[in-house]
Design brief:
Largest sheet: 6 strands, mixed
Helix content: 25-40%
Mean pLDDT: 93
Number of strands: 15
Radius of gyration: 17 Å
Low-confidence stretches: none
Number of domains: 2
Structural class: alpha/beta
Number of helices: 6
Oligomer: single chain
Strand content: 15-25%
CATH superfamily of the largest domain: Hexapeptide repeat proteins
C-alpha cells in the first residue's frame, strides 16, 4: 500500500519536474541534488533522485522552492509543502550544494552563502541594523549557532553547536562558545 501511495505522489510531482527542467537555476539545483544523493546514498538519474527527495524530505523541498523562481511554486506548495520552520530569505544569495540536518527552526538571512554549505537545526543567520553576514564555501554551522551582523565567515570554517558569532571568522577555523572563539586553525 505504501508503495502505491509513493507512486501516486510521484505523479503529483510532475509539475515540479517540469519546473526543474526549465529552471534558470537547474545547474545549482543539480549541485544540491548531487550533495544530497551523496550524503543519503541515493542512486539513480537526476529526475528519479529529485522525485525521491521531493517525496521524502520537507527541507529539500524548501531549498527546491527557493531555487525555483516561478510563481507556480506557490500553487505547488499547497499540496507539497516544504519545512514550515525552515526559512531562507529571498534576498540571500545561496550557492549550490546546500545540505541540511533537519533544519527545524533555522533561519538563513545572509548577504551570501557559498557552495557546499551545511546547516543544522535551531541555527540563526541574521542581520543587525540591516547588515548581514557573508559566508564562504564549504562552511558548516551546527545546532543552535547564531551568526549575525556585518561579518565574514571564511571558507572551510566550522561553527560549533551553540556558538554566537558576531566577529569575522578566518578560513579553515573552528569556532565554539559564547562569545565565539577560535578553537582550531588548520593550515592547508
Amino acid at each position: 500500500m505504501r508503495r502505491i501511495l509513493f507512486y501516486i505522489y510521484r505523479v503529483l510531482l510532475i509539475p515540479h519536474i517540469v519546473l526543474y527542467l526549465f529552471s534558470a537555476n537547474k545547474e545549482t539545483i543539480n549541485k544540491d541534488l548531487d550533495r544530497w544523493c551523496a550524503a543519503k546514498s541515493i542512486k539513480g538519474s537526476k529526475i528519479n533522485s529529485l522525485l525521491y527527495l521531493l517525496c521524502h524530505s520537507n527541507d529539500f523541498r524548501t531549498i527546491f522552492y527557493f531555487r525555483i523562481k516561478s510563481p507556480i511554486k506557490h500553487i505547488l506548495k499547497l499540496y507539497c509543502k516544504g519545512e514550515q520552520n525552515f526559512t531562507i530569505d529571498v534576498n540571500t544569495k545561496l550557492g549550490g550544494g546546500i545540505l541540511t540536518g533537519h533544519p527545524y527552526c533555522t533561519i538563513l538571512n545572509a548577504e551570501s552563502i557559498g557552495e557546499n554549505f551545511y546547516v543544522n537545526h535551531l541555527v540563526t543567520i541574521g542581520e543587525i541594523n540591516g547588515k548581514k553576514p557573508s559566508i564562504g564555501n564549504n562552511v558548516s554551522i551546527y545546532t543552535g549557532a547564531i551568526v549575525i551582523g556585518n561579518i565574514v565567515i571564511g571558507d572551510n570554517a566550522k561553527i560549533g553547536a551553540g556558538a554566537v558569532v558576531v566577529k569575522n571568522v578566518p578560513a579553515n577555523t573552528t569556532v565554539v562558545g559564547n562569545p565565539g572563539r577560535i578553537l582550531t586553525n588548520k593550515k592547508h
